[in-house]
Amino acid sequence: DNPDQRITEDVKNFVTTSVKIITMLVKAITYICAFTGVLLSISYVLVVFLLLYSTVGTVIAVAGFGKRLMELQRTALAREATFRFSLVRVREHAESVAFYNGGEREQGSSDGLFANLVVTLLSQLKWLAGLQLFNSCFQYITFILPPLLIAPLYFDGTVEFGVIPQAGMAFSTIRHHLSLLANNLAQFASLGAEAARLTNLRDCLNESPVPPGEVILRKQLKTPAIDLKSNENSNAGTPGGIVSKFAGVVPLLTVESLTLRTPDGRRELVNELSLALKPGESLLIIGPSGCGKSSLLRCFAGLWGRGSGDISMIGNSRHLGKKPENDDVTAANENETAMQELLRNGGEEVAFVPQKPYMALFGSLREQLMFPVPVAPPPTADALGDDPMCPSRMGSQEERGISIGNNADYSSFSKNSFQNLPVQSFRDALDQAALGELMVRFQLDDKIAWEDVLSLGQQQRLTLARLFLKSNIKLAFLDEATSACDSETEQKVYEAVRSHVPTYISIAHRVRSLVKFHTHVLACEPGPDGKNNWVFMTSEQFMKKQKDRGNEDFA
Predict the structure, then answer these.
(1) Strands, DSSP E only, in 227-379?
(2) Are 181 and 61 spatial neighbours (Cβ–Cβ below 8 Å)?
(3) Cα 38 to Cα 82, 179, 224, 500, 535, distances in angstroms
(4) CB count in 10 Å sphere of residue 367
(5) pLDDT (tens digit, 9 = 90+) per residue, 175-218?
(6) For labeling, which of 299, 415, 481, 490 is most exposed (least CB within 10 Å)?
(7) Is the dihedral of CA 474, 480, 485, 488 positive or negative?
């Protein structure tokens, strides 16, 4: 739960507390060595009694208070993080809560979480007060014990009177440092709680999400040479745009006997699915909500991988899942080099557009369009020509009141790289996504809260503009990427997708309006036993099937 707090607060507190405890330990060892000789010169009995006294006190403190304080500290950390997360969540969804008139309900929920946190902190305070009381009584008794133990030696004339306060000071000093654990039990309990939370986080990060024997194999295909523009006109009337030219070309995506399960393994979403898509072919995935359409895209992206079967696709290793354990460092370096080369040449060959758009925090329009690639400093006037929208011709960023954070390292990118695209490229991408007005309303380097300025439909189209901005895309996956757009805009955007991307896979519920933009359909039809029955067919076969069923939408 709440990994953000574990990474920030718990790591900081763990390091700080560890340093303090190590410092106290070194100091305690130094004092014990210095005063033990003094105490031994006075009485061996006093030293033995001191060791027993400190040991008994530490055991009582740890057994009576340590375990409970550690549990309370772990609970307090978890409840504080949950309370903080609940407030952030309400703030992010404030408008939706207001429309539902759910402010009172959410306030009650937050009050309940806060009350639980207060109860835990009060309980922790009581136990800390009890520990402090025990340590105080344990410490004050040492003021009486040394004189009582030295008194017989004094009356026998073995030691002088000045030895009594000397022994008392040495006894108290050694006792204090021998009781390091009891005196600082609250810090040790906090350290233990933080260590447990961080260990749990580390184990979760290192844990394999897929059990052995249930791994979907992923392979990389060689990208065929594709000239999309030269074939646009000759196949304009063909669904998918460019089918005939690539007959016999190796596919961009092949799926063989794919069986996909949820990460917990409780539900089977896909059973023995096989298909292949060549350049110019496109696929529309349809089916009822919750049948596993988006899960299938998660599988293609390497986010989910529990099941069996083979997936072969173009692209870099990021979409091919976790590398086998026997891969050497050289292979990893080659994959990283290939990734950097793809970025320099115009971006990745495979793109995923999720259903819920993501806007980079405090990012400029340029950064939003180029996400997730780091953005280089704004291009020079020579690269932009006479474009009036060029930031350099609008004055400096400071003069326009724009704060730009250029902390990224751009040394690895060439002058003609993807990071230095001219403004016209951004304008064209936005026009294809039916967002040309953004270049009129904003500058490329304006940083605003885009989630608050743009509607959900505009945010979806902005994520599609990222797709149009990249020239190397050969295979795209669109998960209801236009669900918040009107039909007319959706048609325009898919026309742009068809002309820009050789092969794409879409998930959509507006089947009638989008089937014409795809060459194939993958339909999920729930069977009588409750399992999903996936049927792969051409668009013509699908439309004929719908007409035979009497579906008026396809008449």
Answers:
(1) 253-261, 268-277, 282-286, 307-313, 350-353
(2) yes
(3) 53, 19, 85, 87, 89
(4) 22
(5) 778 888 888 888 888 888 888 888 888 887 777 666 666 777 77
(6) 415
(7) positive
